[in-house]
Amino acid sequence: MSQRLLFLIHSLDMGGAQRVAATLANHWVNKGHAVAVATLSSTSSDFYALDPRIERIALNVAKPSRHPMAAMLNNLRTLRAVRRLLKQWQPQVTIALMTSANVYLALAGWGLPGQKIGSERIHPPMLPLGRVWETLRRLAYGRLDHLVALTAPSAAWLRNHTWARHVTVIGNPIPWPLPVQPPVLDPNTLLIKGRQRLIAAGRLVEQKGFDLLIEEFAQLAPGFPTWDLIIVGEGPLRGPLEAQLARLGLQDRVFLLGSVGNIGAWYMACDLYVMSSRFEGFPNTLVEALACGLPAVSFDCETGPSDIIRPEIDGLLVPPGDVSALVSSLTVLMTNQALRERFAMRAVEARVRFSVDGIAGQWERLFQQS
Known about the structure:
By secondary structure, the protein is of the alpha/beta class.
């Protein structure tokens, strides 16, 4: 039976939650549902492509606040805009992604028909929001019909620290084959043939730990002269990371590629995936890399990687933040092609483990609950 489904998220710029919203929206419109994606921001930063049958709504209420009074007024305007949208579009199910959207949906949707489902996309204690927003989250989540967490530890935290009534664990879907969209960069025209490559991907922010990864590669580089490191992604730390590379003399061995829309081609052109994040929710790039047949080495963050990597089956996990342990595990795989190939054969099972059909089915079971 066709339903009216509305997504509410801050923006559609490059990020894990945004990719999930686009993936599920595209899936459900293909199944005959009426789907809309609404953002608090404008469309100017949109990165992920939506099916043309999806109604794209930009509320354009995401404004910077220079002082507490301005913040309060901006939040009131946002609440009015979201409530007006819910009344006009009349969704049977609304899915909010990330904390602020969850809170806005919970408060603006009070008393209106339709299911209201929030979802946390990061492990909440790893990214404190401040007293006001922590209080709003704790109280407002009780007004949602369901709350989705990415992992069991995150679900437990939400049950213990908010008034959420029903918390369900659902991982992220990964479409296969991986979608391609601009900007497209051909690895064959940019990479030197005959070299081997580590690859990492994510926004250039402190959370992703690329400064740690560069430190690790500096230790590996002398012993592995035929290996390079590719980092895919863009962000505010590009300048400091470039300065770190210059200080270590790694400009010819480590490449900050920027954002690409054909990430699958880059995974396929590399030999090993590495994740150095300080914390994660449920890292999409790790699932994508496995789906492309890359073995992976990752810090075992409190949440995320251990739900994806199966140790000694498709990758290796090391204690979080332990640079020496990550270097040792990378050394094991970089020196053992047979082991990389054995892990790669099982890594592709991620295509089924995290398929869009399977993950969407878990969401759909929530829609059927009152």
